[in-house]
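Action item from last week, closing it out:
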Amino acid sequence: MAKRKVLKFPDERLRRISKKVTEFDEELAELLDDMRETMYANDGMGLAAPQVGVPIRALVMDVGGNFFELINPEIINAEGEQVDEEGCLSVGKFNDIVKRPSKVTIKAQDRLGYHYEITGEKYFARCVCHEIDHLDGILFIDKSEHGKEFKEKFGKK
């Protein structure tokens, strides 16, 4: 395992749409292991592959002491609403308020390619929605209360 560099806003690579994972091989396993190490080394609760410069649909998260790897995740159901503060390893020390679903069901694959579904609430729902947004080139500052001001101040001129 090796810690990888986390890309920082306004790096344009964070805006790429990630490609579906089709090869469930040792390279993917190594990436997932590296992402886990990188996430923990940066005190994160989630990390998507595009954040380490790999534009594929893979993410890792740790919510409530439970570690998850989601490959090709899709939200198949979202319910309710929660409004709370978020931050991001790719944005730095800026935190802001974002509205997210309070409960989601996700369809995904594991590192071996096996399909599964998982339903989670509260922090799980917030984190997985945040990380799936990364796979679509979306940052939380695109949805947050004061994100526009942040992007104007720190984005490319």
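Closing note: The longest strand covers residues 66-79.
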